[in-house]
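EI: anyone free to look at a 265-residue chain?
SC: sure, send it
EI:
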Amino acid sequence: MNIYSSRPVVLCLSGHDPSGGAGIQADIEALLAQGCHAAPAITALTVQDTVNVSDFRVLDREWVMAQANAILNDSSVAAVKLGMLGSLEMVYTVVELLQANPHLPAVCDPVLRAGGGGRLGKDEVGYAMREQLLPLSTIATPNLPEARILAELPEGTADECAARLLPFCQHLLITGGHGDEQQIHNRLYIRGGQTHTFVCERLPGSYHGSGCTLASTLAGRIAQGEELVSAVKSALDYTWRTLRDAEQLGRGQFVPRRLPLDFCS
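SC: here you go
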């Protein structure tokens, strides 16, 4: 018997990671765990493993537009998750899509570096995201190194980067963990002055795909109707648990184990 699906659909515009740790596969797994359906539109193909990225190719604009519009014309999309874009042209493509669908909440994960440090786009891509994409997004989720690129503050603190970026976006979640502190401080900034700090225990090791997991989970919580601050907390809590249970599937970083909530307590 056919049963009409009641799961929220999340359109994911992200790159493909053949290791399965980050990118589209991370989006699909994280969204499935939130009770959502991921509809992936591939923006780029990468050559990477759990150690680092060695090359990438951004897909043609027409292909990405066709993928996204096929989903938008067929399904009732509840939210959009943005990941690796990789080029100025792809930023402009996504800007056009969001402008045509202003009713859709969008979570922007400004992917500019792989977990191993390799570049996934020139810095000018980050500047275009800041100027054109962040104003169309519900929330952006950079880690501190990405926030520094977006803010053009190479040594900036999270607070300093937020002050530079909040004129461009309504909500900004800057994730910690790139220093040596024993507790990780993730900071949610809201334009107008409100700030929420979420603290979690530092886990040993380094991880491939944590940012993708967080942003996708957040998009899923928003698609499920959760209020933004609560959705951020839920997404951070879930992501921490996937890192706690992470697996070493290759020679490099650990890969988050993105199990459904019932199995990730």
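EI: The chain has eight helices and nine strands.
SC: 👍
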